[in-house]
Amino acid sequence: MAKVLTNRCIxxxxxxxxxxxxxxxxxxxxxxxxxxxxxxGRERIPxxxxxxxxxxxxxxxxxxxxxxxxxxxxxxxxxxxxxxxAGPLGLATHVERVGTVACVGGGIGIAPIHxxxxxxxxxxxxxxxxxxxxxKDLLILEPEMRAASDDVVIVTDDGSHGGRGFxxxxxxxxxxxxxxxxxxxxIGPPIMMxxxxxxxxxxxxxxxxSLNTIMVDGTGMCxxxxxxxxxxxxxxxVDGPEFDGHEVDFDEMMRxxxxxxxxxxxxxxxxxGRHRCRLMEREARRG
Amino acid sequence: xxxxxxxxxxxxxPPVAMPEQAPAERRGNIREVPLGYAPxxxxxxxxxxxxxxxxxxxxxxxxxxxxxxxxxxxxEGRFHEAAMAIKGTNCLPAVxxxxxxQEEQCQVVCTVAKSHKDPAKSVQIGKLxxxxxxxxxxxxxxxxxxxxxxxxxxxxxxxxxxGGLTAAGDLAMLxxxxxxxxxxxxxGGVLVYGIPEFRLPKAIVDSEVDGLKRLGVRFEMNVAxxxxxxxxxxxxxxxxxxxxxxxxxLPVFKKVPGENLLGVYSANEYLTRANLMDAYGxxxxxxxxxxxxxxxxVLGGGNVAMDAARTGLRLGAETSSxxxxxxxxxxxxxxxxxxxxxxxxVELLLLQDAIEIVGNEQTWVTGVRCLRMELGEPxxxxxxxxxxxxxxxxxxxADVVVVAIGNGPNPLVPRTTPEIRTNKWGNIVADPATxxxxxxxxxxxxxxxxxxxxxxxxxxxxxxxAKSIHEFLTTGTx
Lengths: 287, 478
What we know:
The complex is a heterodimer of chains A (287) and B (478). With 287 residues, chain A is α/β, with parallel strands linked by helices. Chain A has helices at 22-27, 68-74, 110-122, 142-148, 167-176, 190-203, 236-239, 250-257, 261-284, and strands at residues 2-11, 14-20, 33-37, 45-53, 58-64, 81-82, 84-89, 100-106, 126-133, 151-156, 163-164, 183-187, 206-210, 226-229, 232-235, 242-244. Chain A has nine helices and 16 strands. In chain A, the strands form three sheets. Chain A has a seven-stranded antiparallel β-sheet. In chain A, strands 11-10-9-8-12-13-16 form a seven-stranded mixed β-sheet, with helices on both faces. A two-stranded antiparallel sheet of chain A has the order 14-15. The relative contact order of chain A is 0.15. The mean pLDDT of chain A is 96. Chain B is an alpha/beta fold. The longest helix of chain B is centred in the last third of the chain and has 21 residues, at 455-475. The relative contact order of chain B is 0.12. Classes of the chains: A alpha/beta (287), B alpha/beta (478).
């Protein structure tokens, strides 16, 4: 059991959970993830570590309610608990001084890119973050990202905050100017990472993406997270989660993400049938 | 009493069959297939043992259980004493009684089998072991094993499978301060994620783990050593000895086109979802989904393949078949598993090999393209080599395909511990006599050293390493 200190809604459907996991907090590095199981009988899901405090022994997770398991997590009150937090898992981001690094975060992907931006800057890079969301309300962690970056560019699909457009538009503009990045790290929805990788391949800029696939154990045993990278089979849990964006077969990965779509939908709807009000109440209490 | 029986009379007693759930019934549930002996059945079966002096069965057992001793106690109805006689050398009898390949170990050499010239007529040692362990767990006096006085020496066990649990038990009995690290949320390793409930009820594994906790063993779950923390972290944290028993958990794929189609699983994933995550109970009892195919096709011929095919039936498949490239006699699965699978309706598709997994436009699997095979000359394994028959391609319809062609050694510890030497297959190199690796203070054993083997061999490895670790802790010499 791991104690949940706080679990608050920070944007529509997006929650930030601070959970006590001293060993994860002590050993984690930027880019790594944990597997969380909210309670006995529930699913194990991978969540990237957004932040950690080794002294306090806490780990911060930012997650979006997209199905039954994340909805169960959202219902946990401050002071509650989750059954398991396993990790840290995955390989850490390879952090080195390359010059200018563009950290591209889309939607909920801004959370995992935060520790990477911090580490890249600590290694002496100039960090320019491009943050994108559908609309102003969904743009999370802006103050944290401003603190971790030398410059921040914000775009929203509807233009309600920052420029109107996609992160690829902002990245293209950035690459054409004096701050052309030497490395791009992109984390967000698969389609965003695919489009960013396509653009940077054209521009000739090395690009890392962090994949979030279906997993069970997260330690290399089930192979459910397998992806094709440069024509080779790779396991996201132990060979990743970061890969060369120019080599990832995103289309295959996106198809594999849909494996349990029907089951997940039915399971979530059944859950909402019983808990919709509580979930709405949790969302209404921002902070 | 059995004592008066002459060997001739004993040989006349036919083997006592263990009652089983009927095939049609058990296909629809996940409860255990064999139901166990009643006490009088066990006592009758025990009378068949000749208690022969040379006791070849003991030598056939990797941990040398005192088989004739415990069987004689069963014949006399002294079941608790029988359990104690087994537990002297085997700390997991309820597990071994179920999953050991007795027909290749203690039973194949049994004098009764030899007299009848029929291995099937050997004393049913495994069934008796299971009976004794179950009786003692359910009806015997409470477990009163006591550890020796605490030595204060800290030992880390990496992995809570059969090898790790055995070493943990032995070392705790000797008074050492033992912590078992497990990557998953439940202790037992392959006993809980791999072997299905219908072959090994998980309550039995839990009960064995509880026994170790009573001996003072600590369990730290959710820590993948080699990933979350390294071996060096453990040594730096004050563990004086580390036993690596991380098993053969790396799924091997067949490397044929189509393996990433939707509906294709490694056996590890399929079984882990069904067992550890209880996907049988989706959506009511468990939140972890699994594809419930109408036509399940499993590639491979070992026990894991049988487990996967039988799991498919229990998940509601209309057909479940196993594709194996040689013939039935070469199948590595236990005869009992093949028998149970066939009884339940698993179809063996022999002398054929998958060359491609085929799918539809939405990339869901629709079938397995196979080639017929013929058996040629024996290969290095001594089994006749399968040779493809040219132009014999055909497609078996499938909506779930499970790849069960073997497992490689878990790479997490070797990848982050260059001091530990591995062989070309990635198995850790360990001294056969002691289990010592090339890194001081670190031992290894079980499938991570042997390659995918058996529960009992892993236990033997755990026992051997525990002895060597105890020596190291008491003498300080490596």
